[in-house]
């Protein structure tokens, strides 16, 4: 038995002037989750959007909102993102001194909790919080911008984290420079959830379904068995989504 591959387009690469239409298009094109990149110009050298934008786009789709918080501090804003409609909230291990507290706060808000690791951060940062996690996000670029090149150095980290996760029901997500050309290697290393911005949104909305399918097919081909029958199962594509 293997984890179902999840493809999560990053709306950072969408046309912001038509954000609602863009989300509807990736929804129709087969996106499993909607990846929302929140940047503060402090933790990362770019500013994107905040909770009000997430609240505004929430009614556009029933797909799970995978909210990647590249902000520091993060704790004061968790409640706002939860109320705005986040399903998963992922904080950076580097963003504050009390990761365990941040993860407890996310679950106390009734949300799935994730941790993201920058490329220079060791997987040891999550060793003592694994049981508080629903998702681990390995950055394969330095966070802050879409359209950067994939860092192959992170494949070894992905494999190590896959091993650390063991049979826990934790999603292993990869974010940054993911394309149809490296998706197989990412999945072979142990990732089961692939974020892609540029590689999904290129070519206009007529191409979104094909772009998503190409990433999924490549990842499916590369993946390796990870779960034994009867073992714990992580979130699937629709779980956590709102029914409207
Ligand atoms: C980078 C973001 C990524 C990014 C992905 O800081 O976290 O989600 O938007 O975009 P691509 O796929 O273009 O690298
Ligand atoms: Zn992201």
| Tally of distinct domains | 1
Strand fraction: 15-25%
Structural class: alpha/beta
Poorly predicted runs are: none
Question: In the CATH hierarchy, what is the architecture at level 2?
Answer: Alpha-Beta Barrel
Could you estimate the helical fraction of the residues in percent? 25-40%
Tally of separate helices: 8
Total strands: 8
Written overview of the protein:
This protein is an alpha/beta fold and 244 residues long. The protein has one domain: TIM Barrel (Alpha-Beta Barrel). Helices cover 30% and strands 18% of the residues. It has eight helices and eight strands, in the order E-H-E-H-E-H-E-H-E-E-H-E-H-E-H-H. The protein has an eight-stranded parallel β-sheet. Strand 4, helix 4 and strand 5 (112-117) form a beta-alpha-beta unit. Helix 5 (154-165) packs parallel to helix 6 and helix 6 (183-189) packs parallel to helix 8 (208-222). The longest helix has 15 residues, at 208-222. It is globular. Bound molecules: D-xylitol-5-phosphate and zinc ion.
Secondary structure elements and their pairing?
Elements: E1 6-9, H1 19-28, E2 33-39, H2 51-57, E3 64-70, H3 78-84, E4 88-92, H4 99-108, E5 112-117, E6 135-139, H5 154-165, E7 171-175, H6 183-189, E8 193-196, H7 198-201, H8 208-222
Parallel strand pairs: 1-8, 2-3, 3-4, 4-5, 5-6, 6-7, 7-8
Helix pairs in contact: 2-3, 5-6, 6-8
Task: Provide a brief overview of the structure.
By secondary structure, this protein is of the alpha/beta class.
Supply the key terms.
244 residues; TIM Barrel; eight-stranded parallel β-sheet; 8 strands; 30% helix; binds D-xylitol-5-phosphate; binds zinc ion
């Amino acid at each position: 038995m293997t984890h179902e591959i999840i493809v999560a387009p990053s709306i950072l690469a969408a046309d912001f002037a038509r954000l609602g239409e863009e989300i509807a298009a990736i929804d129709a094109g087969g996106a499993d989750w909607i990846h929302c990149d929140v940047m503060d110009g402090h933790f990362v050298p770019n500013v994107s959007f905040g909770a009000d934008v997430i609240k505004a786009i929430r009614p556009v789709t029933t797909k799970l909102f995978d909210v990647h918080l590249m902000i520091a501090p993060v704790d004061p804003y968790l409640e706002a993102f939860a109320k705005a409609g986040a399903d998963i909230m992922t904080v950076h291990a580097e963003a504050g001194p009390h990761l365990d507290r941040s993860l407890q706060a996310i679950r106390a808000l009734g949300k799935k909790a994730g941790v993201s690791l920058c490329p220079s951060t060791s997987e040891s940062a999550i060793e003592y919080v694994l049981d508080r996690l629903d998702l681990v996000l390995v950055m394969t670029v330095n966070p802050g911008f879409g359209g950067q090149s994939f860092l192959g150095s992170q494949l070894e980290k992905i494999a190590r984290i896959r091993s650390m996760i063991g049979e826990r029901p934790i999603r292993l997500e990869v974010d940054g420079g993911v394309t149809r050309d490296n998706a197989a290697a990412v999945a072979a290393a142990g990732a089961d959830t692939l974020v892609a911005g540029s590689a999904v949104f290129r070519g206009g909305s007529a191409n979104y379904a094909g772009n998503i399918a190409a990433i999924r097919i490549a990842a499916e081909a590369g993946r390796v068995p990870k779960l034994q029958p009867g073992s714990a199962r992580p979130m699937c594509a629709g779980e956590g989504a709102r029914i409207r």
